[in-house]
Predict the structure.
Amino acid sequence: MAESAPARGPLVGRDRFWQPPAYTPGYKTSMTRAPSRPLVALGSTLSEETGPVFGRDMLGEKDNNLIENFTGQQAVGERIVVHGRLIDQSGRPVPDALIEVWQANAGGRYRHKKDGYLAPLDPNFGGCGRTVTDAQGRYEFLTVRPGAYPWPNGVNDWRPMHIHFGLFGSGFGQRLITQMYFEGDPLIARCPIVKVIPSQEAIDSLIAPLDMDASMPMDALAYKFDIVLRGRRQTYFENRKEGL
Amino acid sequence: MVQSLNQLKESPSQTAGPYVHIGLTPNALGNHGIYPRDLGKSPIRAGAKGEKITITGHVRDGAGMILRDALVESWQADAAGIHPAPNDPRGGADPNVTGWARFIADFDSGDWQFDTVKPGRVPAPDGRLMAPHISIWVVARGINIGLQSRIYFEDEEKANAECPVLQRVEHRERVKTLLAKKTGPGSYRFDIVLQGEDETVFFDI
């Protein structure tokens, strides 16, 4: 359960010039799924400032071990630790927050009925995991490095190696899904989904560096991936009644 | 030069992609054995106070196609308008309301459905009461950043007319896209239209 007082207060507005726009023709599927009317902007209310809490007692022992959590037998692939911190825009840790991850196996194949890529399924790899951040916002997973894979968009588009991350904060308005990429992958710069992000600086913030200090000798390499959720406005004047 | 504000940027969003079920609803996909059950099957438990309702809908794109790969999450207050969260300053929410649910489009029909209780009115920051609503967040392949909207109820005319959030929708004819239609006793329909004619109002909130 929460070891520190849960965060309260209005959420800082999203920077829509930093975040990807909805309509991005390079990623074709977005063209019919992007709202064409302006978003209706307003300050957060309790409906966005509060959110669900998931206790650590819900977790199974191997929930954050994707190498073993499907059958108990070891999945095939490069063993890696993925770790980092979940923080908000003020740099404060986001404790007790659920993080869910999913990914392709080492060959680039997803355990999903819609994925028909010719790389084989790994009978011992399910491809999902979850954990809850500690009091400092830290988390870690053990997994195999996912393979790159082709996808139908352009004639020869490939997704770089990536892990999907679903993040909860302390408010439903902080809900975020993103993807972690791996340092040095030449497919990152070629990926139409990466390129929906407007700036290189923002793209760089999704690329996890190799972290030799966190690696386990003779066992697993490590990558560090910090994630930033929307912050909360905090001033001494916050008790004032205000318009929406 | 000036001092740094020391404010970090939010991590950029990326699409949930077509395989979101692997991570968020593995059992519904047939990937059993990792989690005993999928999270968010219901926002209520037996004994939840309030009017029991069922909401059904689908997510449709700008070409009229019903999405089979959409995932929607909902968050709501209890029947008294209190959120079951430690950071709702009022506290004392119904212990049988968890408030949060996650539902996916049926792989064949594209419909999603969930049972809940109709939430009470929640105060806006200025103290005015918002109309009963369920906050939703929609993700899918092709959606670069999760879409935020709200399910209101067409049979809450008085509360809807007083709701400061609904009043902020400048194009008044679009308010109806936020209202679940009553289809029977305790039953509502709420279709989410991503683009084009009847496009749902999405918020930046």
